[in-house]
Design goal:
With 441 residues, this protein is an alpha+beta fold. It contains twelve helices and 15 strands.
Length: 441
């Protein structure tokens, strides 16, 4: 294990606010929401209580690649990943050599890269559910597997997404997927950080991808009463607000190109920032509810700062999990107070999910990019819909714990403020905790 700096040289993003960094960042700074009325399509709308979602609009993979009949059968999540990977490589200054095999299938060899030293580490909370549910419906309809395609199974597992990125870009280094619910994207970045530090590879593409707004997944969250039942897409997601009533389900992708500093400098790369470190813990408490005492999350943040060699006084911004659920927001506020003490009230905190919704496994990757843009621009986006902060919240089981939502959540409008070191936090079902720290280079 070395102490070499791990740097960020490229990023690619797909969100309900658009499929470019510019559309995402300008939208967030303007307080614009990408959340809309749910397009139920094949859903029976009457069976669902929630009515809103953060869908990516006007996405067409053929705009980015030569047309391939495989795109239609490999799932929306996979197509998000392929496009975002291409965006990230291009943003990092790489070009491609277009090749065609005997079958005519196009591949994009990344020029100037040692393919065996490039890792692919993806965070995906749920597998290709659109493919899974489509074939499950056929199975039931035909009372057996007669109508199942031979491609029914291979495109469903989460690991196939990284495998298809490797195939498309001819990358032969390590490739694997991490599935830790809503912490998946953040955990993927932490794994990439340690893999680069260990010397296993020189460069990695890492982050989160998700597209699971399907009858089964949407319906499952709906039946749990985890989703907002506010029918107004403009006001449904309201983190830290007294009137919050659940999260808004979303989709998207956020991938970063990470490199050792030596590798980036050797190829003359533009270095955007440093991924200074990160940490992960488990609550060991409940399948969906966060530990009310926040012990393991507090330990995780302390460990992340230790790995990154930064003090609590250096943290200039926190991008929280900020889901707009009754338990997460006060619990997260309490955790931040435990870690930073009185200084917690001086650190700007703003929820990206207030405008994008919750993209499950993709959220950690997208929000890490948001933190990066915060550092690069000297601007902090607002928390949308924060009208009545839940500043008198009291935990019914632990009333002695200060879980009031009374911190600086940057309500109203964007703020100009230099940020040198920032944290992106993620918390997932099953008590999965994670955070990455990004530092100005």
């Amino acid at each position: 294990m070395t102490n070499e700096k791990i740097v960020i040289t490229g990023r690619g993003v797909i969100t309900p606010l658009g499929c470019t960094i510019e559309s995402l960042w300008s939208g967030l700074l303007a307080g614009k929401s990408g959340i809309g009325t749910m397009d139920f399509q094949s859903f029976d709308e009457s069976q669902y209580k929630s009515r809103v979602a953060g869908n990516v609009q006007n996405f067409d993979i053929n705009f980015y690649f030569e047309n391939d009949k495989g795109f239609k059968r490999q799932g929306r999540l996979t197509n998000f990943a392929l496009v975002t990977a291409k965006m990230a490589f291009e943003d990092a200054g790489f070009t491609f050599e277009l090749k065609k095999g005997e079958s005519g299938k196009a591949t994009y060899s990344v020029k100037g890269i040692n393919s065996g030293r490039c890792a692919i580490i993806l965070g995906i909370g749920v597998h290709n559910m659109d493919i899974s549910e489509k074939y499950h419906a056929l199975l039931i309809e035909h009372n057996g597997p007669r109508k199942l395609s031979p491609f029914a199974l291979p495109f469903i597992p989460t690991n196939i997404v990284g495998g298809l990125i490797a195939e498309k870009f001819l990358l032969t280094g390590p490739s694997y997927t991490i599935s830790t619910a809503c912490a998946s994207g953040t955990h993927a970045l932490i794994n990439a950080f340690h893999m680069l530090r260990s010397g296993v590879c020189d460069i990695a593409i890492a982050g989160g991808v998700e597209s699971c707004i399907t009858p089964y997944v949407f319906g499952g969250f709906d039946s749990m009463k985890a989703l907002s039942r506010n029918p107004d897409p403009d006001t449904a997601c309201r983190p830290f607000d007294k009137d919050r009533d659940g999260f808004v389900m979303s989709e998207g992708s956020g991938l970063l190109i990470l490199e050792t500093e030596t590798h980036a400098k050797a190829r003359g790369a533009r270095i955007l920032a440093e991924l200074a470190g990160g940490a992960m813990t488990s609550d060991a408490f409940h399948i969906t509810i966060p530990n009310p005492t926040g012990e393991s999350a507090v330990a995780m943040l302390h460990e992340a700062m230790k790995v990154a060699h930064v003090s609590a006084d250096e943290i200039g911004y926190i991008n929280p999990h900020g889901t707009s659920t009754p338990l997460n927001d006060p619990n997260e506020s309490f955790i931040i107070k435990q870690v930073f003490g009185d200084r917690a009230y001086k650190i700007p905190i703003s929820s990206t999910k207030s405008m994008l919704g919750h993209s499950i496994g993709a959220s950690g990757g997208i929000e890490a990019i948001v933190v990066l843009e915060t550092i690069l621009s000297g601007k902090i986006h607002p928390t949308r819909n924060l009208v009545n902060p839940d500043s008198d919240f009291s935990d019914p089981y632990f009333p002695e714990l200060d879980k009031r939502c009374d911190l600086d959540y940057v309500p109203g409008s964007a703020r100009e403020q230099r940020v040198d070191v920032a944290i992106s936090e993620s918390f997932g079902f099953g008590g999965q905790n994670g955070a990455v720290i990004i530092r100005r280079y």
